Amino acid sequence: MDIVIIGGVAAGMSAAARLRRLDEQASITVVEKSGHISFANCGLPYYVGGVITDRDALLLQTPEAIKARFNIDVLVNTRAEAIDRTAHTVTVTDLTTGAARRLHYDRLVLAPGATPVRPPIPGIERALTLRNVEDTDALAAAAQQARTAAVIGGGFIGLEVAENLVRRGLRVALVEATDQVLAPLDPEMATPVHDALRSAGVDLHLGCAVTAIGDHDVTLADQTVLDADLVVAAIGVRPDSQLARDAGLECAPNGGIVVDRNLTTSDPHIYAAGDAVAKHDAVDGSLVLVPLAQTANLQGRRIADRIMGREIGDRPVLGTAIVGLFGLQAATVGCNEKRLRAAGRPYRAIHTHPTDHAGYYPGATQMALKLLVDPYTDAILGAQGVGPKGVDKRIDVIATAMTGHVMASDLAELELAYAPPFGSAKDPVNMLGFVDENLVTAKARTIQWHQLAQAQDSGAVLIDVRSPAEFAAGAIPGAINIPVDELRERMDEVRALAEGHEVIVHCAVGVRGHVACRILAGHDIPARNLDGGYKTWAAGTRA
Amino acid sequence: MDIVIIGGVAAGMSAAARLRRLDEQASITVVEKSGHISFANCGLPYYVGGVITDRDALLLQTPEAIKARFNIDVLVNTRAEAIDRTAHTVTVTDLTTGAARRLHYDRLVLAPGATPVRPPIPGIERALTLRNVEDTDALAAAAQQARTAAVIGGGFIGLEVAENLVRRGLRVALVEATDQVLAPLDPEMATPVHDALRSAGVDLHLGCAVTAIGDHDVTLADQTVLDADLVVAAIGVRPDSQLARDAGLECAPNGGIVVDRNLTTSDPHIYAAGDAVAKHDAVDGSLVLVPLAQTANLQGRRIADRIMGREIGDRPVLGTAIVGLFGLQAATVGCNEKRLRAAGRPYRAIHTHPTDHAGYYPGATQMALKLLVDPYTDAILGAQGVGPKGVDKRIDVIATAMTGHVMASDLAELELAYAPPFGSAKDPVNMLGFVDENLVTAKARTIQWHQLAQAQDSGAVLIDVRSPAEFAAGAIPGAINIPVDELRERMDEVRALAEGHEVIVHCAVGVRGHVACRILAGHDIPARNLDGGYKTWAAGTRA
């Protein structure tokens, strides 16, 4: 059997190696348009920043090593030009010699990946992108000559590039056309990321598009001109599906190649995987683009299984992702609130600010966690986390819970490994479950940060149950300070305030606010707790 | 309603605080025999070691603070003497004044915890234990006077105490009567822990009981005499169920108080939670003792729910646990191989040695992971991990998968947050799933380290597919070195070796061995791969 694979990085090489492990006899040929295969694409920004100093470390495999281990023929610097679906051939061009040839296939695997979006800005040809080893060499070389840089785009790659250019000693501006970086985060969760960027000296421009790229500057829509010896475009990527489209294979409106549950395209002899394909969203069932290495690797493996006869079944994607920057971790899984709201889908949101491990053990740091839950089924719809440490673990646990269809309130029962250096007896994930359970059983009612102003406008009374010192250090406009431990003795005062008004309670993060609401409930004063407390409100209103 | 709670630490105080949040009017009284409530019992060893320097940090709550916040009456230094189940009273003694009184209850919660086991060794009265704040003060004071210490018992507490006494500058011997520390680990997984202890200068005595404790030494069964100005007994704990037993409440053969799915004892007005109760094991359904803080806290919370009328349902326990020592993490969940074997329960074992994050990103460290799987259902039965970093995360993910009934081969599909500083595109947990899937689909067959010698005795040929350099640095007796990349060209040689013999293949950790087995399978030579490779074999045979 002749198998041709277009693309020699994550999906393509996973498919190739697994195919060989499943079939020692098949002829397997990998066609890669860049000069390298199996390179560490997620590591590229860190080579630019000098975190990874050995360039060879990026090159996980060479064509020679792959031949020796797996007896796979790898053609690098070779571009697939056209597929002849009737003849079962692919025409490829050797980009070094210009020579064209045809490769026969019994099965064809498309794993071409995605290409950086280049918006039609005057001067865009000056902008560098970061997608492969050649890009990395160019960016590292340019960074050595430059003193200033502008990074266009505040997504995962944009942030990683910005961080690494700062590491290189450049003065870096980050320009993002929307109001926040990291679109998968909701705005109040992006605030700590904005803070980290600014603290690290990044000149952050939000809600502002680049209108022109000059020789040593970029101009923004608000006429700001930023010094930029170096410009990096990291606006996003789009599926590299032209070859598939030209061959008449079905593509989704979002540009991704359409595949069925067996990763088969509209041609039964052609499979596709990785960043180039449209995926089935695990939460809402829509066709989405999820250009992530882990998904690409897994799909590559699955295609090999399928070609060798196994029914592989539908694998919807959660899109779990993380980025580290300036000592902060920001991670997400599933849907965010923006998307749920846009879709008109009901949800409840829970914000907490736990520490990564027991507060009494040295080195504990605070993180922000957010959980989104289906209010009818209690299913977890998504989660977000931002903090210096331990966010990766909690998002991974929640992603696993989502895969196992663990309900939000059952997060309370998860048995997670606890010792003081690693967690808390009530882990942050358990705490999310406790809060959810209180909402499910109506032991708690909450109000979100973005609903507070309107509630106050409608006459709600806001009681801040923190200490007088905390209140003095910064309070929500209109709040009245009655510390939680004084509530019982000052109940007449509260009762007078509550007369004819809704009562809303808040503390720093929501814990004392919950206790206060329960005390008030015990005195027949219904109250809502500000979810996530002052901290979430402050992050949201500053966002 | 009068509620009396015996025990004011994890389970007791969780129950008390939750009860108040659910009922503002109930009378809630907590009886605690030590001088402190809600203390950080898991943090105690770290105060002894000077990691936690502020003693007040251990005291998470005071009776005064609990009264102010929750209107709960806390009686410290007060011992519950007897329960009169007919009169619904508990007799308690104030240990400071000696005064006795009776407390009426409508509902009684037993959360007395566990007490350290003190074996009948001559001199045992000299041994200190570590269970509460008073113990900690005594141990910290003794450590200041001592130059040498012997810790008896290699469980979680014993190891934490040993580490912290080393931190204090003491010369420490650790004596464990069985052949390994950390009984929840299988022997090959305990080896790295033994190595870490020895590297840190701990004088480790395994398989050797203490026969006598002298004034400044301890004597072992093999006549070894160890200097020990200070002796700590950390042999284990037993449920503090005497009060319950005296009151005629049902207790299990293991000493734990028996409770039903609603945490109710054999008396419907009396509930019990925490280290004192027998728990329902999530894997094999047996009644087990799981003296862990997280379970205690959760059960306390659940009792409050139950007293307030909620059906809480059965919550079997996985017993997820972790310990950190000398920069190593050792964590477990579910059953280990020893227990499965003793129970005669079929299982398959998988050993891997992945890095905590992408190998090309600086700071990656190797861990050992082990997964135990039901061969008929593919259900996960347990997991163990040992390594410098990232073990906590993987065990938490597997514990969550077990709770969500994610099958072992489906670990392959988990979408875990990946960026090079945090994981790998194929996370260690995914890799366990890949290996399991290969076993399920018969794409791989493995042999365990402890089965190898017998297979070789029965004539099996062992091929080491590592590089000649690796082979030269240390090899398994009888192994023949044919590097994986030379297998295809040396197939005649392999075929000659295989003639009339079973073929077993191994590499360093199992990955190249798997590739080699697949190559051999493609040439009609069936072979088994040594699970976990040389590394697991070496750890097991050294154990």
Please state the structural category of chain A.
Answer: alpha/beta
Helix content of chain A: 25-40%
Largest pleated sheet of chain A: 5 strands, parallel
| DSSP strand content of chain A | 15-25%
Give the low-pLDDT segments of chain A: none
CATH level 3 topology of the largest domain in chain A: FAD/NAD(P)-binding domain
State mean pLDDT of chain A (0 to 100 scale): 96
CATH class of the largest domain in chain A: Alpha Beta
Task: Explain what you see.
Chain A is of the alpha/beta class and about 550 residues long. Chain A has 16 helices and 29 strands. In chain A, the strands form eight sheets. A five-stranded parallel beta sheet of chain A has the order 3-2-1-7-17. In chain A, helix 1 links the parallel strand 1 and strand 2. In chain A, helix 1 runs parallel beside helix 8 and helix 6 crosses helix 16. The longest helix of chain A has 15 residues. The mean pLDDT of chain A is about 95. At the A-B interface, helix 1, helix 3, helix 8, strand 20 and strand 21 of A face helix 1, helix 3, helix 8, strand 20 and strand 21 of B. Chains A, B: Belongs to the class-III pyridine nucleotide-disulfide oxidoreductase family. Chains A, B: It holds the Pfam family Rhodanese. Chains A, B: InterPro entries: FAD-bd_OxRdtase, FAD/NAD-bd_sf, FAD/NAD-binding_dom, FAD/NAD-linked_Rdtase_dimer_sf, Pyr_nucl-diS_OxRdtase_dimer, Rhodanese-like_dom, Rhodanese-like_dom_sf.
